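Please complete every field before forwarding. Incomplete forms are returned to the sender.

SECTION A: IDENTIFIERS
Entry label: holo-418
Bound molecule: zinc ion
Molecule representation: SMILES string

SECTION B: INPUTS
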Amino acid sequence: MRYAIEGGTVVTPDFILQDIAIVVDGETGTILHMGKDIPSVDMVVQLEKTDILFPGLINAHDHLLGTYYPRVGKGPYLNWYPWDNDLKSHPLYEERSRLSNQDLYWLGAYKNLISGVVTVSDHMPHVVNEPLIHDLPVFVLSNYTLEHECSSYDLRWGRGITIEHNEARERNIPFITHLEEGFDEEATLGVDILMEMGALDEYTVLIHGIALSEKDVATLATQKANLVWCPSSNYYMFQTTAPIKALLEAGVNVALGTDSPMSGGLHILDEMQFASSLYEKLYQEKLDPAILVRMVTVNAARALRLFDEGQIAEKKKANFTVVRGGHSHNPYESLVKADLSDIRLVIREGVPLYGSTHFLSFFSHFPNHYQQLFIAGGEKILIGKPIHFYRELCKKLGFAKQLPFFPLTLPEGTAVCP
Ligand SMILES: [Zn+2]
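SECTION C: PREDICTED COMPLEX
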């Protein structure tokens, strides 16, 4: 099937276009054509005039296994290790453990999807997430190599920095490592260690980097390394964050990540809003919203080496996040200020996954199982069986858990705890 999306405004970090149509090849899930003239198609998806269509959003660092609420901890901490101990000794940790790993990955996938995210990079090693990620309604990166962190309190997830980094280069995939998430002597040496080992280059994706020095920032820029900024989590745990202004000025490729909702942002929209307000608080100037949009689209795709994502262009994946405009005359700001109720439609590889019932007939062309429900006050269609899923969660927990990143209202007459 071939369909066209028209109406609304098409916005990427590089252009803003009105009165154009995007033609999607349903077979390959890619963009066939963009322009004012529409070739013959099987269906037209009509956006509203105020709708803004962005590339599908990418959450560059999440902990899907930690999808729970609320946050836990009493920072500021010296590094992540004592936070992890606080989490594991907290009653919420026991409560969360009533859910299976599969439940938590699904919850994390729904959390991301309803905030407009189509692609997620997950914190965990392959041995944990590989069996759980392939049926999820969002794409979770599986091609990466990993070292948890270069410190003595590292969780020994990888086979060593050199082996993991070499494999990333050979396979043209990212080498992901947490770096300088703390202020102890070891944490502050992260960049030097990676440099010494020859493991700092365009394949390297560093998570956090809150203790980066001026010299480290210059090194990251020269080496073309990537950084994932997790401001909510950093600020909650350490009351500070990566030197973001210096990183941007140096030209480092920065993506945005929510980290775990038990320390970080509720979802990517919440994270963008927090990033924007924190930047203003730290530097008494506004962070250009187009830069934030770049961090959740092209920059994230570049860091994770997903070269057919994060952009809207012919032959790229047909991944789109449609947001209700109107928060601002600046469309980038409309995304930064959006909340869950503003997400109008989410498409991944040509397939609608989530959206307003306004698009009901579009969804009806696809054979997937969908359910209609109220999310954040709006009537929506969501892939899978989210109502059954939520009821199962509540049954396992023994009560109706309120999750602000998955605020669904069940249809009238449906008991939460069956
Ligand atoms: Zn992490």
